[in-house]
């Protein structure tokens, strides 16, 4: 987090780059599809939370607009460089997802977004946050652990292309006694 400025609409990274954080809306659909298409195969294998066709993205926008999810895109000019969300933000234990474009990885953006989503869940008085990540994703895992997430088991996660992936389930408790619910780890239906 060192040296990073993080105001409401913008994040300034350690290297001075400044990006804009925007809520997911219909105007972001084409850019978000381009963001996914531009990911390297290895990044996409780690971050494919749902399909990126227009129907799916329209559904994700609707979920955000109704308050069911909190979904954010990060843009440099008009190019989306990161996508982050808390699914089921209207429930006690939202599910977090985070993906950063390859050229932006390792520059502090993922950490800034994670801090922002955790802060939003705290303000909303949620019990905790849950996420899944593959065991070999050491960068993601160390990031989550640095913010207090702990491994709570393994689950079969259904990726956006239907693959079933065995992943670690990690939880961050925000309130004493908060328990993550039984849930299906899959794109929202
Ligand atoms: C995982 C991901 C979200 C992290 O975001 P990022 O912007 O690259 O990460 P940051 O630069 O903010 O670094 C986060 C932390 O990880 C640490 N880190 C950075 N690179 C690392 C590496 N190669 N190995 C281990 N730790 C690393 C940093 O020390 C940093 O800690 P800090 O915030 O306390 O300084 C991003 O790399 C990404 O989208 N990767 C591909 C898709 C993916 O894996 N998504 C997550 C699925 S669970």
Map the helices and strands.
Elements: E1 5-6, E2 10-12, E3 18-23, H1 29-38, H2 41-46, H3 54-65, E4 70-76, E5 79-87, E6 95-100, H4 109-123, E7 128-133, H5 138-146, E8 150-158, E9 164-173
Antiparallel strand pairs: 1-2, 2-3, 3-4, 4-5, 5-6, 7-9, 8-9
Helix pairs in contact: 1-3
What does this structure look like?
Helix content is 28%, strand content 31%. It is α+β, with helices and mostly antiparallel strands. It has a single domain, classed as Aminopeptidase (3-Layer(aba) Sandwich). The chain has a 6-stranded antiparallel β-sheet with strand order 1-2-3-4-5-6, with helices on both faces. The protein has a 3-stranded antiparallel β-sheet with strand order 7-9-8. A hairpin with a 5-residue loop joins strand 2 and strand 3. It is globular. The mean pLDDT is 95. Bound molecules: coenzyme A.
């Amino acid at each position: 987090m060192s040296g990073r400025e993080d105001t409401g609409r913008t994040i300034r990274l350690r290297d001075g780059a400044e990006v804009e954080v925007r809520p997911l809306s219909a105007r972001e659909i084409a850019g978000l599809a381009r963001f996914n298409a531009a990911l390297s195969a290895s990044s996409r294998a780690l971050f494919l939370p749902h399909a990126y066709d227009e129907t799916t993205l329209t559904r994700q926008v609707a979920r955000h607009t109704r308050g069911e999810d909190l979904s954010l895109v990060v843009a440099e000019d008009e190019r989306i460089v990161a996508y982050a969300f808390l699914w089921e933000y209207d429930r006690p234990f939202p599910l977090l997802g985070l993906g950063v474009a390859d050229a932006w990885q390792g520059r502090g953006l993922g950490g800034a977004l994670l801090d922002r989503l955790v802060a939003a869940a705290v303000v909303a008085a949620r019990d905790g946050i849950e996420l899944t990540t593959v065991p070999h994703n050491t960068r993601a895992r160390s990031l989550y652990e640095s913010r207090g997430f702990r491994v709570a088991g393994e689950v079969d996660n259904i990726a956006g292309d239907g693959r079933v992936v065995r992943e670690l389930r990690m939880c961050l408790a925000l309130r004493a006694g908060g328990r993550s619910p039984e849930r299906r780890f899959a794109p929202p239906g």
